[in-house]
Write a structure and sequence with these properties.
single chain, 12 helices, Cytidine Deaminase, domain 2, 371 residues, five-stranded mixed beta sheet, alpha/beta, binds ligand AOF, nine-stranded mixed beta sheet, binds zinc ion
Length: 371
């Protein structure tokens, strides 16, 4: 019994190292997952690796190349089931078998239908002991976007919003600079650095004229996506003119003025996605189109109308809310003006709630579905 407990905590310690390693590629691997691998022999780490970017070698390959011959009879700790398919790289399960590892500890099965247990099967067939499920929850939440996108072809959406303690995102006059604290706003740049896409509605562009870039040192700009059915945004909006390394996409419809579209199309770094609808952008189709391009995680930054529509369509996965200790009263807008539930018994309830005051605002996160 004691031995088992020791064994378990050793496995968790090494797996936790592997998860940390995987997280070094946060925001850099889409559409692939973040994966970390650690090779251990005689309780010593002899190889480490993580998947750095889609199309490049998988975590196991890096760890095996660091360990070289020592990999024989070692234990591999991998945060995701080693793959069994020939994708852009050959199967990692074969590489582990060839290197002669004795045991493989896996945090979670790969939800990719191309793998889905076949990697584990392959290792077991080769006589390798495989233990699955060590720190499974942590590994799954690191790859929550990948898990959703690979199984549903829809992206993972986080709605980030900031409101006053009395539930307003701006005063009655429309003034919103600033609701949340400096620290909260700095943290949002970490989210921008991590998510593939920032999504906003046209109202947000018209009112706030944000650039939607990532101002974190060493950060990278996400794709910026504006839902603008009638293409109302000004041609000198910052999303169109500011220098960003990633494109700005305007999702629009047949209601967009033709001459304006042709001018926007000529701008550097701007893409127009025109849908065959007469007024509203088909949101689910647009989200699927993101996944087709390899963009699997979306940071929804407003406004309340778009957020309401997406929540109503059950497209939003997570909420991250900064509640400032401020009161403004009046008829200022709410973060969910597009949602209008009539009875309290029908209210949306969140799961896995967490709250802290790390940014001098009340910071609440929750999920729209249990998991
Ligand atoms: C692993 N180790 O480090 C990663 C895995 O296009 P490819 O060849 O890179 O394959 C991508 C798929 O491989 C991805 O969807 C996921 O199922 C798996 N990712 N597997 O054994 C890794 N990144
Ligand atoms: Zn692999």
């Amino acid at each position: 019994m004691q031995r088992e407990t020791f064994q378990k905590s050793t496995d968790e310690t090494f797996m936790s190292e592997a998860i940390k390693l995987a997280g070094q590629a946060l925001g850099r691997t889409s559409p692939n997952p973040m994966v970390g691998c650690i090779l251990v022999k005689n309780n010593q780490i002899i190889g480490r690796g993580y998947h750095q970017k889609a199309g490049t070698p998988h975590a196991e390959v890096h760890a095996l190349s660091e360990a070289q011959d020592q990999a024989k009879d070692a234990t591999a700790y991998v945060t995701l089931e080693p793959c069994s398919h020939f994708g852009r790289t050959p199967p990692c399960s074969d590489a582990l078998i060839k290197a002669g590892v004795k045991r493989v500890v896996v945090a979670m099965q790969d939800p990719n239908p191309l793998v889905a247990g076949r990697g584990i099967q392959r290792l077991r067939k080769a006589g390798i002991q495989v233990d699955v499920g060590v720190l499974q929850h942590e590994a799954a939440s690191l790859n929550e976007a990948f898990c959703k996108a690979i199984t549903t072809t829809m992206p993972f959406i986080l709605y980030k919003t900031a409101l006053t303690l009395d539930g307003k995102i701006a005063t009655e006059t429309g003034d919103s600079r600033w609701v949340s604290s400096v620290l909260s706003r700095q943290y949002v740049h970490q989210l921008r650095n991590q998510y593939d896409v920032i999504l906003v509605g046209s109202e947000t562009i018209l009112h706030d004229n944000p650039a939607l870039t990532c101002r974190l040192p060493g950060g990278r700009d996400p794709i910026r996506l504006v839902v603008d059915g009638r293409c109302r945004l000004a041609e000198n909006s910052q999303v169109l003119t500011s220098s960003a390394e990633s494109p700005c996409i305007i999702a629009t419809t047949k209601a967009a003025p033709v001459d304006k579209l042709s001018r926007l199309q000529k701008l550097k770094n701007v893409e127009i996605w025109q849908y065959d609808t007469s007024r509203y952008v088909p949101l689910k189709q647009m989200l699927k189109d993101l996944v087709c391009r390899g963009w699997i995680s979306v940071l929804l930054e407003g406004g309340g109308r778009l957020a309401g529509a997406l929540i109503e369509n059950e497209c939003v996965d997570k909420l991250e809310c900064f509640i400032a200790p401020k009161l403004v009263g009046g008829n200022g807008p709410s973060p969910l003006s597009g949602l209008n539930i009539q009875l309290m018994k029908d209210a949306i309830e969140l799961y896995d709630l967490q709250a802290d005051m790390n940014f001098r605002d009340i910071h609440v996160t929750g999920y729209f579905r249990p998991h």
